[in-house]
Amino acid sequence: MKRNPLANAILWLVLILGTAAFAFPLWWMTVVSLETPQRAEAAITGSSGLALFPPSPQFVNYPDAIRETGSVPWMGFVDALANSIVITVLVVVGTVLSSSLVGYAFARLRFRGSRPLFVLMLGTMMLPGQVTMIPLFLLFRQFGWIDTIMPLVVPAFFGSAFFIFMYRQFIAQIPESLVEAARIDGLGHIAIWWRIMLPLCRPVTAICAVFTFIGTWNDFLAPLVYLHSDEQATLAVALNGFKNQYGGLEDVHRLMALSVLTMIPCILLFIAAQKTFVEGLARGAVKG
Amino acid sequence: MATVTLTKVGKVYADSAHGSVRAVEAVDLKIHGGEFCVLVGPSGCGKSTTLRMVAGLEEISEGTLEIDGKRVNDLPAKDRDIAFVFQNYALYPHLTVAANIAFGLETRRLHKSGLIAALKGQLSARRDESASIRARVSEVSRTLGLDPLLTRFPRELSGGQRQRVAVGRAIARDPKVFLFDEPLSNLDARLRIETRTELRLLHRRLAATIIYVTHDQEEAMTLADRLVVMHQGRVQQNASAQECYESPANRFVAGFIGTPPMNIVDGNLKDGVFTANGVSISLGAERAPLGARACALGFRPDRVRVVGHHAPQSITATLAAIERLGDRTDLALDTAWGRIVARLDADLAREMREGEAISITFDSEHTHLFEPGECGRRL
């Protein structure tokens, strides 16, 4: 394919600017995380210029940040990390399993009221989280689930409207004869879902898992609302502790160091899943 | 080898817009053990629906379906011990050829997954089963020449190979009845003819009961021990291919079976003389008892003969088109009776040119008379 060189240059310029706009905050965060406390604070408050490279990288900021996380040295970080991992893994597994199962039902089972139910489910996407936050909190308090991971994890096992929709669209275009062949081979609906549909839905599952992982891992509000004690805090909540504990911004270099650490799993996951991920997005778009 | 009996089987689809739609009506059919039965008809004639009712993929609205004398109307597909070969093969895309063939066997195994088996102390029984499944898969793959393909995925196979895997998956389970739903229609013409022969040979080797659906009457005739011609949800004729060809039960069967199709002319019969559009031909004294009536006359293209001009009992025709097929030649003729197709030996037609006028006739003993109407009975 031949392009006009000028158009090419403009395209490159736009791409470079776009990449820079997205990459700059990450780079800046990393720079600040390696600064001395004074320089970091100055950088944040804007009282000094921006350094693209820290003059003397303070790698010690990282172990310091880990030690200072939570109220117990070292263990605070381990706790928060463990909480984040447990919650995120459960939420991802729950969302994938329940959304694909419900998506399969909406795509393949004919039952009375399936259409209104589907529309109703899509309607729940219109509800902003802020609207349901307080009623949900009251409900979970009734259950005695406050300060446990239950309010964060259990809803995931009831599906997510958006991913149910994605699974339904994907499953609807899998030939009906596959389901019929499986029925003749002796499979029931659950077995068809588990042994035929889930393996075929891999691109959707990759999208669902990555989005859910990133969303849950980085989620700040829900853990803040439901998890009150230090031992229950997730990494995202623990990060906030740097501000509360010391007030002001004198610990901002540690905050940034821990932020960098927190981001690593998301970046690794994205790189690992990228191929399946893009394939799935493309497939969702053009139906393959 | 199982007998399949359909008694007054019907299928009614509830349709909110049109009340209800009757797709299949009062089908009576007895397919004997080891018989190759072909359901043939134009699309929408109810043949696939009938097959799917036998399979259990479609509920039976009316009538009884028996396999080996046992009523199976309400038995789910998996318990009917049938195998189904789909038009698009329906191979599991995420499984290798070997896993596809083994799939049905594995879901039917008595000793469940490894963990449960271990808990129940059935591990050795399970191992034996796995070994027997492997043996069965390799036996089937040898029969069908699939050995080099066993580790491939369906997307890596050609159409013909996929078709063979689909057949392999069906025979692996050694079912009572094989059901084929247009299995050759996705193959190119040459491969279709090859595979047709293979299926015929396979049928002989397995001595299995087969119900096969196709819209291709040539495929139907070459495969069938018994041909069931369907139209508008009803069985039009149920007989051997030869019988359907030589004595079609009605006008529809006459027009559907045979290539090129039978010439059928609407007209009147009186005292054994058939007249259409002012041109008459005597059909002989034995047709006289039929009296005077409106009817349709049918005769096969290969029964048409070219005769000298103004010979008695002849019809004048203009050669509209000549199709030379090598050993024989098809002529499209414009006559007072409309378009008539004739099939001649290539030698007889060698000198003919399009636009030429000729005279044709046919032997009255090779004609058929039908009552008027699309499915008019043979007289």
Structure in words:
The complex is a heterodimer of chains A (288) and B (379). Helices cover 73% and strands 0% of the residues of chain A. Chain A has 288 residues and is mainly alpha-helical. In chain A, helix 4 runs antiparallel to helix 13. Chain B is of the alpha+beta class and 379 residues long. Chain B has two domains: 4-251, Rossmann fold (3-Layer(aba) Sandwich); 260-370, OB fold (Dihydrolipoamide Acetyltransferase, E2P) (Beta Barrel), CATH 2.40.50.140. Chain B contains nine helices and 20 strands. In chain B, the strands form four sheets. In chain B, strands 6-7-8-3-9-10 form a six-stranded mixed beta sheet, with helices on both faces. The longest helix of chain B is centred in the middle third of the chain and has 22 residues, at 123-144. Chain B is elongated and about 90 Å long. At the A-B interface, helix 9 and helix 10 of A face strand 6 and helix 2 of B.
Average residue-wise pLDDT of chain B? 90
Q: Return residue spans of chain B where pLDDT drops below 50 for at least 5 consecutive residues.
A: none
Note the main sheet of chain A: none
The ordered H/E elements of chain B are EEEHEEEHHHHEHEHEEHHEEEEEEEEEE
Measured by residues with Cβ under 8 Å of the partner chain's Cβ, the largest interface is: A-B, 15 and 20 residues
Output the number of helix runs of chain B.
Answer: 9
Going by helix content, strand content and strand pairing, the class of chain A is mainly alpha
Fourth-level CATH superfamily of one domain in chain A = MetI-like
CATH superfamily of the largest domain in chain B: P-loop containing nucleotide triphosphate hydrolases
Q: Give the amount of beta strand of chain B, in percent.
A: 25-35%
Percentage of residues in helical conformation of chain B = 25-40%
N-end to C-end Cα span of chain B: 38 Å
> How does CATH name the architecture of the largest domain in chain B?
3-Layer(aba) Sandwich
- How many separate domains of chain B? 2
Q: Which fold name corresponds to the CATH topology of the largest domain in chain B?
A: Rossmann fold
Indicate the structural class of chain B: alpha+beta
CATH first level of the largest domain in chain B = Alpha Beta
Ends of chain A: how far apart?
Answer: 24 Å
